[in-house]
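Reopening this ticket.

The earlier resolution said the output was attached, but the attachment link was broken on my side. Pasting everything inline this time so it's all in one place.
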Amino acid sequence: MRITDFLLSEKKEPDTKGVTLVILTGKKDSHHPKNLYKTAGKFQSKCKERGIKCFVAYSDSCYLQKDGEEDIWTIYNSGDDKGFILDKDKTVVLTRKSVANLKFSLDTLSQIEKRDIYVVNSRDCIEKCNDKYRTILLLNDAGVQCPKTALVADQDMLDKAIDKVGGKFPVVMKTISGSKGIGVFKADSMEGLKSTLQAIWKMNPTTEILMQEYIGSDGDIRVHVLNGSVIGAMKRLRISGDFRSNYSLGSEIEKIKLTDEQKEMAILASKAVGGVWTGVDIIQSGKQNYVIEVNSSPGTEGIEKVTGKDIVGKVLDFIIDRNKWVKQTREVGYIETVTIEGFGDVKAKMDTGNGSYCAIHTEKVEVKGNMAHWSHNGKEYSHKYVGNKNVKIRGVLDKYDERPVVNLDVTFGGVTYKDVPFTLVNRSNMSTPVLLNRAFIKRANLSINPQRRFSVTLKEDTEEINGLLKELNEINDLEYAWLEKNSERIEAIKSRSDYYCSLIRDVNIMIEKSGLYGGYVDRNKRMLKILEGK
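Inline output:
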């Protein structure tokens, strides 16, 4: 079998059964609530054709509500008592441009993301695209060529800004946010530039302006990128008597065959803003290509007209396939406090390297029939015995420890995760009583910051640092024992080396974050070298 045939045979079939769609959009006409913008309306119609349940949520007035005691959330439009259930296993939310217009709408989107719902595109992507200067910085970081750009916050910055973009007129000026060519103008002289900016700042003194070098061209190229692949492109010709080329402003459009460089630039630009489906605008001057903007909510009317492609259908095919879902993660510290039903709050380490089961400390465990009887912090517990799990013993080749498994409910970040498998093991030589594995981290959509502890739960304080330093001071004689070659004392301490190494690393991070007790850091590092045998 050829390798291409093998890869195709391994491709997963689309998983679309029961998937529902919520379109988060604005109203085109407030007097006619069902008069949607064209692309939102196309998605609604396409869902109706395919028998997909679809709900239109108006971004300026919809809200989320938890119904009943179960973790079931419903999205409602103002004045609508029925609403639509958001199910993390079934629902996908498609966001449109109007979401970026109001902080209220963005906050509603954040609530949806927190409920573990797949969103296209995320709030993070929308905000990156909505801030044109931030977009340029991200594109530069990704190695994507853009026009020379400067930020102008007041008139005193004009001279330096002009020098930065090439030192000559004309220049292009844009408001930081805006779309469809609105808020974009060309200045042919310093006098014209100043008078236009003075008018803008008189209406709103806090308006920030982006200045870019003017690149002469007969239009620009709009490229639709979906999950790292180009699905369509069109050329938008410059409007007669204008330097802009937006289709929404009346620009003529035509087919175009992209070069490999243009495809690559568009894909890199979409990835730079974290987009799933984006519209990337490229301007061409001679042999040079420049990305000028990335749109997190591209329209489809023009692109479908000129290419003959069903862009809405392609996007819908992708977003309703659960196999394609990559949900928005939330950054947390590598140690956080979680709540385990029956135990209360416990300190847990997030271990991205653990491909086995989660683990919880027990002093003793006994399996009788279908029940596991075990103790934790001196208290006795009984849970249904699920089975055993062979776990590789760290640092010992081909040796495994057979551990009983029970299911426990874990609550973190306001969400309860039912029936999480835990192995029961003595963790007295570890820094935390609970270890959460990669499967749980993925299930909870977490991103682990290895430099932070208690990022979203308990806050570090001097009392905890003092307690841990006091514990470390119990082995304060380690350096002396090492110098004196006191092997008996060294071996006694090294019998718990895993615990002390972990403790030292944690304490040093806490010290550096707090700015307290800095003198202990070097001592701790020396002890760590001895324990690690360096």
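Reporter confirms the inline version is readable. Residues 387 and 405 are 5 Å apart (CA to CA). DSSP finds 16 helices and 27 strands in the chain.
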